[in-house]
Specification:
By secondary structure, the protein is α+β, with helices and mostly antiparallel strands. It has a single domain, classed as Peroxisomal Thiolase, Chain A, domain 1 (3-Layer(aba) Sandwich), CATH 3.40.47. The chain has 14 helices and 19 strands. Strands 7-6-8-9-3-10-15-14-13 form a nine-stranded mixed sheet, sandwiched between helices. α4 links the parallel β6 and β7.
């Protein structure tokens, strides 16, 4: 058993033992959306950095996506569900003001009743809060050899013809946290965090769609990054280490990704924070920052570009891609993780990729998962959005029909009757 972060006299290694993601079965090409809205496609593809956007049907809610990611993790990494004693779902698109998404997921995954189960909400920061909670749970020794499952699951939906429409998306990322970190070891000895009350992004209780002050939210994100990173550097200095990210301490830098170009803005701010000054347009420093972005950040962003914004899971979608595509050359090397949640809260931490992580990730490749999706046209996309807006109305006469939406997934949300959400697994309705 762990005691004070030590096991048999050695520091306890804690981190991600397994990771998997799930996405909706349909997607929309960003060029098609741009053309339909009378916008030059490059504004979305080059300006935002997005290629495609996941489109969740009425039968694919936050629970369905979370359960799908959890099922894939258990299957691909041969995990015994009984080994899990904590389940945390981080989400900002919960399905009930009281009942947590995790309760439904707990049932669908068949986890033991000897399990702590709860949901964390703090905009896009929720899953990172879940990850640090799980790390501390293992570190404290209270897990007693068992593991924690953290799932980030969200549907980013802003509606037709809105400013936020091209930054929609949906998906879930599941991570198994244990003292056997076969994929990623978390450096729990130092972390930087930041919080302040701002109204940059919010979703009132009466609305299914979020509201945002876009430019202000970007500024809040960047300020939170500077604040969290400066605290992280102080921790490094207190431990007698130098933290300069600009000097290459981290071989890869991962960020919260509401859209791909935001990661570029974030990396520039990180390097500016190190340098103590803002980079001027066309300056050598800015050109060097862009080159460094291409080297240390861009290689992890392919999934984000093809799935879109998944709120709490956006950072960890980058991680899942990096672990498969680049873990071989990054094995044993440090990387950084930065999470931002509007409102706001943020965290910056370091981690190390483990030897053999890339081999474990290739049981089911990222491209294999993406290739199973079906493309929708604009008419179908708008039909789906209209249907989703009515899905949670109580006692709908026509509950979700999987065949109408061409769905093949085993877990489905069927609608609400008698004020209760109804789910099915492999055609069997759950009680």
């Amino acid at each position: 058993m762990a005691e004070n972060g030590k096991s048999e006299g050695k520091p306890l290694r804690i981190g991600i033992e397994a990771i998997a993601f799930d996405i909706p079965e349909h997607y929309l090409e960003m060029a098609d959306l741009a053309t339909a809205r009378g916008v030059e496609p490059a504004k979305y593809t080059a300006g935002l950095g997005q290629k495609q956007m996941a489109v969740a049907t009425p039968c694919e809610d936050t629970v369905v996506l979370a359960a799908g990611a959890g099922q894939r993790l258990i299957k691909n990494f041969n995990i015994d569900p009984k080994s899990i004693s904590m389940l945390i779902v981080g989400t900002e698109t919960g399905v009930d003001h009281s009942k947590p998404v995790s309760s439904y997921v707990h049932q669908i995954l068949g986890l033991s009743s000897e399990c702590r189960v709860f949901e964390i909400k703090h905009a896009c920061y929720g899953a990172m809060a879940g990850l640090t909670t799980a790390v501390n749970y293992i570190l404290s020794g209270r897990a007693k050899g068992r593991k924690a499952l953290v799932i980030a699951s969200d549907i980013a939906r802003y509606g037709k013809n809105t400013v936020g429409e091209p930054t929609q998306g949906a998906g879930a990322v599941a991570m198994l946290i244990s003292d056997n970190p076969q994929l990623l070891e978390i450096d729990y000895n130092n972390e930087g965090f930041y919080a302040t009350q701002v109204m940059d992004f919010w979703r009132p209780l009466y609305s299914k769609e979020a509201f945002a002050d876009g430019h202000f939210s970007i500024q809040c994100y960047l300020d939170a990054l500077s604040g969290a990173y400066n605290l992280y550097k102080k921790g490094d200095e207190a431990n007698g280490a130098q933290s300069k990210a600009a000097n290459g301490k981290f071989e890869a830098c991962l960020y919260h990704v509401p859209f791909v170009k935001m990661a570029q803005k974030a990396h520039q701010r990180l390097l500016e924070t190190d340098g103590g000054q803002k980079f001027e347009k066309d300056s050598p420093e800015l050109k060097a920052a862009l080159q460094d972005f291409e080297k240390r950040v861009a290689p992890a962003l392919e999934l984000n570009a093809r799935v879109g914004n998944i709120y709490t899971g956006a950072l960890f979608l980058s991680l899942a891609y990096l672990l498969e595509s680049s873990a071989g050359k990054l094995a044993g090397k440090p990387i950084s993780l930065f999470s931002y949640g509007s409102g706001c809260g943020a965290e910056f931490m370091g981690a190390k990729i483990m030897e053999g992580a890339d081999r474990l990730m290739k049981v089911e490749s990222n491209e294999e998962i993406l290739s199973k999706r079906r493309q929708v046209n604009m008419a179908k996309y708008e039909e789906i959005l209209d249907a989703c807006s009515k899905m949670d109305l109580n006692d709908e006469e026509n509950l979700c029909q999987p065949e109408k939406w061409d769905l093949k997934r085993p877990v489905l949300y069927l609608g609400t009757q008698n004020h209760k959400r109804i789910y099915s697994v492999n055609g069997v309705v759950l009680n």
